[in-house]
Amino acid sequence: MLLQFSVENFRSFKERTVLSLEGSSDKNLPNNVVGFDKGKILKVAVVFGANAAGKSNLFLALAAAIITVKRSDARQVGEPLFSIVPYLFDNKSANKPTSFEFVFVAEGKKYVYGYSATNQKICTEYLYVYNSSRPTTIFERDESAEEKYTFTNQGIKAKLKPLTERNTENKLFLATATAWNAEETKIPMMWIANSINTYDSNYENALNIIGDMFENDTDNSLRRFTNNILKEADINICDYELESRDVPLEGIPSILLAKQHGTVPEILGKEYKITAKHIIEDEKGNKTIFPLGMQLESLGTQKLFFMSPIIKKAFETGETVFIDEFDKSIHPMLVCYLVGLFNNPEVNMKNAQLIISTHAMSLLNLNDLRRDQIYFVEKDRKTGVSELYSLDEFSPRTREDVRKAYLLGRYGSVPDLGMGDGLWD
């Protein structure tokens, strides 16, 4: 499970910014947390903020951090790191490395992994594991130092130091060592590569990403899950059909663009088409099934199709899922329902995590979410720098109307709107 993700000097996040899923001492809503060691881990975090405040940049930061790890071993010598985009509104930051750090629990142990990079090379990198209350250094890397790699444990050094010769300045040592079967790096590498995923709200991109999940649904478990979600969402669809065809890679320009910017895990050389089946009843009570192409369905229905395999996979594997603009085209009550599934231990039995950006005011209440599960992003209008902070910092009372307080600007992160009198100036 993810404990913490931090980023520095990426797009609008100039300063070090931390998204923490470590629960506070708050004793409310115990089902919303998982116990680990002596602390708690949040199952859900929601991020609010005005348009252009930087919410999507937080998700792009995570996507960039992951994609750099996943593609590292395949990167050719001299190949740039397309995903790295620093804060560009001052010359100093524009020429500084971007930094990412993950703190997470994998196979019962706590790990800390981070690196800094420009779009040309890796600058620093480190990996620590907690075998006890104190961290053990697996490796540290500093490309500017005389000795670029250091190992505090001699046994680990004997195994990993020879592999440093196989690494290049534009590759992460975590990925290189794992590719050469280093046991010390395998668990954290596999967790970052497979157990944390980001998704945007673009249906066209989503269909290509999750199309193979539908196609590989040999036991129809995904079909049943999707149909059940649609039924519980009060949508009149009884079933669906999936068609796929192979297409040249250049036939999917949106996926190529998405890959270049590091927002999808793979390029899929297939095109998928989903047809929904509706049961329609005439005036005599006769029922007939009518097909309707998914592109003709409402955006909300499309969004549910997009999310159903993602949610199911998360519940089955216990992975961490980031979804940007989660509430786009979805009714506020349905948003609460979907988020509530992740906080429900009877549904989310493997402790999957959901992190979303949203404008859904229905989530701004302390009956469904804890104070430490609600975040805000606010951008400084003068500098263009985004700041992330938690509702927990304001210590609202449990019975406080936090939705009203937010709309009144008590927590910041709301747009400063005009009155319209300057439109014709």
Automatic annotation (TrEMBL):
It holds the Pfam family AAA_21. GO terms for molecular function: ATP binding; ATP hydrolysis activity. It comes from the Bacteria. Residues 44-154, 252-364 form the ATPase AAA-type core domain. Signal peptide: none annotated. PANTHER family: ATPASE AAA-TYPE CORE DOMAIN-CONTAINING PROTEIN, ATPASE-LIKE PROTEIN. This is ATPase AAA-type core domain-containing protein. It comes from Eubacterium oxidoreducens. The lineage of its organism: Bacteria, Bacillati, Bacillota, Clostridia, Eubacteriales.
